[in-house]
Design brief:
Radius of gyration: 18 Å
Number of strands: 8
Number of helices: 10
Distance between the termini: 22 Å
CATH superfamily: Vaccinia Virus protein VP39
Oligomer: single chain
Largest sheet: 8 strands, mixed
Bound molecules: S-adenosylmethionine
CATH class: Alpha Beta
Helix content: 25-40%
């Protein structure tokens, strides 16, 4: 488990839930619609953090059979509030649980931190029952037009990122890991630049550069992200990509071997 990531989330744990997207009702509603929790189902959350997704699962379907929250950060897991959620310190690349132990695996805004994504998805396949489902919710660029500039911004913001998945790359990753993608959607989430900049303990230089990148963003980027100047703040849309996939009964693709 990466000590830098563990340290980062130890520092963020206390205020993590203040990020507006974590408990944003629209983002959670889409996550739940994609999970589609049913009574008795066993659900595992990879990089579950403070447990926001599994709490929403339990609110939507109190009769769900088992909720397991896996995370490398004991500080994030310590904030899981619902005692029905089983918190388990572990790595998404080496999941707890026997083969076929779960009906649904969910992973929201964590894949960009996972070193070996094929290894992670191979583990997801292993712990899912043969017709189990994988649900991913991930902040991405909207597409090819904003991809490069978006990457520059998020890389500067979070140097611990391993990947900057576009919607197309996410779909390709999941398909090439032995899943059949059956549903995708994109959701816009409005964010204030100032509140986003205030959430991390970035250096003054980083903050100034992040602000500059927004103030000098190309016209296409401003249009796609729906920029609106409000005094010294900018309101803008972030893109969430959601995907539901089922284990493909066919032979595993080459990326998983
Ligand atoms: C941005 S937070 C998302 C938390 C939660 N999924 C949510 O939507 O609120 C990312 C989480 O992934 C965890 N994480 C990062 N790499 C991980 C890995 N390889 N295995 C398990 N958890 C990991 C971090 O500790 C952190 O809690």
């Amino acid at each position: 488990m990466d000590p830098d990531l563990t340290r980062h989330f130890a520092q963020r744990a206390a205020t993590y839930d203040l990020a507006p997207w974590v408990r944003d009702p629209r983002i959670l509603a889409t996550t739940i619609a994609f999970i589609d929790p049913r009574p008795g189902q066993r659900i595992i959350d990879l990089g579950a953090g403070t447990g926001a997704v599994l709490e929403a699962v339990l609110a939507a379907c109190p009769d769900v059979g088992l909720c397991v929250a896996v995370d490398i950060s004991p500080d994030m897991l310590a904030r899981v509030r619902d005692s029905r959620i089983r918190a388990c310190r572990g790595d998404a690349q080496e999941l707890p649980g026997a083969d076929s132990a779960f009906d649904v695996a969910v992973c929201r805004q964590t894949l960009h931190y996972v070193d070996d994504l094929h290894r992670c998805l191979r583990e997801v396949r292993r712990v899912l029952r043969p017709d189990g489902a994988l649900v991913v919710g991930q902040m991405t660029p909207f597409g090819a037009e904003d991809e490069t500039y978006w990457e520059a911004i998020v890389r500067l913001r979070q140097p611990l990122r391993r990947h900057d998945l576009t919607p197309a790359e996410l779909t390709h990753l999941v398909r090439s890991s032995g899943f059949r993608v059956i549903r995708t959607t994109q959701v816009r989430a409005r964010e204030s630049l100032n509140s986003w900049l205030a959430r991390y303990e970035d250096t003054d230089r980083q903050l100034a550069e992040l602000r500059r990148l927004h103030l000098e963003a190309p016209e296409a980027y401003r249009r796609i992200h729906n920029f609106e100047q409000r005094g010294d703040d900018i309101l803008l849309d972030n893109c969430w990509t959601f995907l539901r996939a089922i284990v493909d009964p066919g032979p595993e693709a080459s990326g998983t071997r």
